[in-house]
TrEMBL record:
<dbReference type="GO" id="GO:0000270">
    <property type="term" value="P:peptidoglycan metabolic process"/>
</dbReference>
<dbReference type="InterPro" id="IPR014729">
    <property type="entry name" value="Rossmann-like_a/b/a_fold"/>
</dbReference>
<protein>
    <recommendedName>
        <fullName>DUF218 domain-containing protein</fullName>
    </recommendedName>
</protein>
<dbReference type="GO" id="GO:0005886">
    <property type="term" value="C:plasma membrane"/>
</dbReference>
<keyword id="KW-1133">Transmembrane helix</keyword>
<keyword id="KW-0812">Transmembrane</keyword>
<feature type="transmembrane region" description="Helical">
    <location>
        <begin position="6"/>
        <end position="22"/>
    </location>
</feature>
<dbReference type="InterPro" id="IPR003848">
    <property type="entry name" value="DUF218"/>
</dbReference>
<dbReference type="GO" id="GO:0043164">
    <property type="term" value="P:Gram-negative-bacterium-type cell wall biogenesis"/>
</dbReference>
<feature type="transmembrane region" description="Helical">
    <location>
        <begin position="95"/>
        <end position="118"/>
    </location>
</feature>
<feature type="transmembrane region" description="Helical">
    <location>
        <begin position="322"/>
        <end position="341"/>
    </location>
</feature>
<feature type="domain" description="DUF218">
    <location>
        <begin position="162"/>
        <end position="312"/>
    </location>
</feature>
<feature type="transmembrane region" description="Helical">
    <location>
        <begin position="124"/>
        <end position="152"/>
    </location>
</feature>
<dbReference type="InterPro" id="IPR051599">
    <property type="entry name" value="Cell_Envelope_Assoc"/>
</dbReference>
<dbReference type="Pfam" id="PF02698">
    <property type="entry name" value="DUF218"/>
</dbReference>
<feature type="transmembrane region" description="Helical">
    <location>
        <begin position="298"/>
        <end position="316"/>
    </location>
</feature>
<feature type="transmembrane region" description="Helical">
    <location>
        <begin position="29"/>
        <end position="48"/>
    </location>
</feature>
């Protein structure tokens, strides 16, 4: 009996159960990754030892090359963002991540070389190595976040919705829908039309967005005008014009849906990079029987936006992750201290 396959099946079952119970969990990505990795190793170890050894070596090499390619791409993407978008911190996240990882690795190597001549600087290496380990944990967490987001994206969507919530975004020149917001509206209207065509059911579209600084009208009003210009029936549009962020978008939209009574099926629409975090917030405000769908975003914009979304998700449960990082750092530092003491 191959116990590795049983172990992989255990993680696969946990993944399926967790996904059914709550698809907006980062741990779902971890469970999927574990089941896939264990199945992969089980298949490799079924092969002759000479073959499996080479496959594992190639796999490790590919992982290393993928990590290097990731760093290079992050830096390249950051430079592209600086050319095409405003030079602000939120648009430089991919550049900062790539450069930060390289800088940390270089510092560790330099300090390791110096410590061979000046042993007293070894404590610096301990600190840097601890930071590097924490960085690797955060990157692994981000990888699981990516897997969870991709799995969520491909969950089936049923055409039985009573409400379509379209999340707002900033307006151009005070009263015009931006290309990013237009992509959300087009996606929502496309779903509305598809449902009418397939099921004959007309949903109510909730356009959600308040009036921000420098905006002449609310985002909801601009969104409603856009949908009407695209042929959406005015009587099927409901405006939520008080919200200031995603949490309020969903909270206030929920209040509108509750006015209609009964159990209602809904779907919310935003950009693809934003769907997973919005799904977590939808669960937080207790919108039941809902799912998110995402509109396309310019590819160069996705990495920095994805990092920003990841930070936003971590911030929702920040104390949980701060505790995990503190435990990792504590265990690692304690191990190093004990190692140094044992050598004396």
């Amino acid at each position: 009996m191959n116990y590795t396959l049983i172990f992989g099946s255990f993680f696969l079952i946990l993944f399926i159960l967790s996904e059914i119970q709550n698809p907006s969990r980062i741990i779902n990505g971890f469970l999927f990754f574990m089941s896939f990795s264990i199945y992969y190793l089980a298949i490799v170890f079924m092969l002759p030892r000479s073959v499996s050894g080479w496959i594992l070596l190639v796999t490790m090499l590919l992982i290393f090359l993928a990590f290097v390619a990731f760093i290079v791409y992050m830096i390249h993407n950051g430079m592209v963002m600086m050319r095409r978008e405003k030079r602000r911190l939120s648009n430089m996240l991919s550049l900062l991540m790539g450069a930060g990882i390289i800088g940390m690795i270089v510092l560790i190597i330099v300090c390791a070389v110096i410590s061979t001549v000046y042993p007293q600087v070894s404590f610096i290496i301990t600190g840097l190595t601890t930071c590097f380990m924490i960085t690797m944990f955060v990157l692994f967490l981000m990888f699981n976040f990516l897997i969870s987001a991709v799995v969520y994206r491909y969950l089936p969507t049923r055409y039985n919705k009573d409400f379509i919530i379209i999340l707002g975004a900033g307006l151009l020149r005070g009263d015009q829908v931006s290309p990013l917001l237009a992509s959300r509206l087009d996606k929502g209207l496309d779903f509305y039309n598809r449902q009418v065509k397939k099921k004959g059911k007309r949903a109510k579209i909730i356009v959600s967005g308040g009036q921000g600084k420098g905006e002449e009208i609310s985002e909801a009003e601009a969104m409603a005008d856009y949908l009407i210009s695209k042929g959406c029936p005015k009587e099927d549009i409901l405006m939520e014009n008080k919200s200031r962020n995603t949490f309020e978008n969903l909270l206030f939209s929920k209040a509108i849906m509750e006015q209609y009574g009964g159990k209602k099926n809904s779907i919310f629409v935003t950009n693809n990079y934003h769907v997973f975090r919005a799904s977590i917030l939808a669960r937080k405000v207790k919108i039941k029987r809902t799912k998110g769908i995402g509109s396309k975003t310019a590819f160069y914009y996705v990495p920095s936006a994805f990092i920003r979304e990841f930070i936003g998700v971590i911030a929702i449960r920040k104390w949980r992750y701060i505790s995990i990082v503190a435990i990792i750092a504590g265990i690692y530092i304690f191990s190093l201290v004990m190692f140094y003491l044992s050598r004396r």
